[in-house]
Design brief:
By secondary structure, this protein is α+β, with helices and mostly antiparallel strands. Helices cover 39% and strands 24% of the residues. It is globular, with a radius of gyration of 16 Å.
């Protein structure tokens, strides 16, 4: 995976955690269709789910809430309200991915932002690593950014499970998830315990 990404793009995409699905570009749709076709041709993997702590959100706090869920999962109990003061930018109506990454690192965890994919997502989940996915529920012209915690997947049902807003382990079909994820370049935040924590845990 690569940690290279465009801050300018992130700023353009960032807005409040609300919105509705909209049109996606022909190129993005083509990439999505290819991945869905590859997925449907494979032998389904066993469903996988990670019991990630859940903090409901019915406003525009999806950034602090999703990061608090992942940090708490890794043994760093975190109140979303405390994170809000640290990562939320009122004039943007949300939190930048880089601020989430820095907040995780400041708490002694390893964190990386990269462009993910369905295979990578399932590999990380199978290894017990929840992921934060940055979605665009709107369009390129009227983006509606939204963070979700991906907690599992089910090939038989062809979808993922996510903590999203007020919904815990909400099932989202691969097609709908990929459509919204594709519009952010499949921006993904992976947070893991640092090496010293892993050695202690083992």
């Amino acid at each position: 995976m690569t940690g290279v990404f465009c801050v300018g793009l992130l700023g353009a995409l960032l807005m409040s955690c609300a919105g509705r699905p909209d049109r996606v570009s022909a190129d993005a749709r083509s990439a999505e269709n290819r991945e869905l076709a590859q997925e449907s041709s494979r032998q389904p993997q066993a469903p996988h789910h990670i019991p990630v702590p859940f903090f409901p959100d019915d406003k525009d706090q999806c950034g602090p809430v999703t990061l608090a869920s992942v940090l708490t999962f890794w043994g760093v109990p975190t109140d979303p309200q405390d994170l809000r003061k640290e990562v939320y930018t009122p004039r943007l109506g949300g939190a930048l991915p880089m601020d989430l990454l820095l907040a995780a690192q400041a708490r002694g965890l390893d964190a990386a932002i990269y462009s993910g994919g369905l295979d990578d997502l399932k590999s990380e989940l199978a290894a017990g690593h929840p992921l934060v996915a940055f979605l665009n529920l709107g369009s390129a012209l009227f983006p509606q950014g939204h963070y979700v915690v991906v907690t599992g997947y089910d090939d038989r049902r062809q979808g993922v499970y996510v903590h999203s807003g007020p919904l815990r382990d909400d099932f989202v079909p691969y097609e709908r998830f990929l459509r919204s994820w594709e519009k952010t370049g499949r921006l993904t935040l992976l947070v893991l315990p640092d090496e010293s924590r892993r050695r202690v845990a083992s």
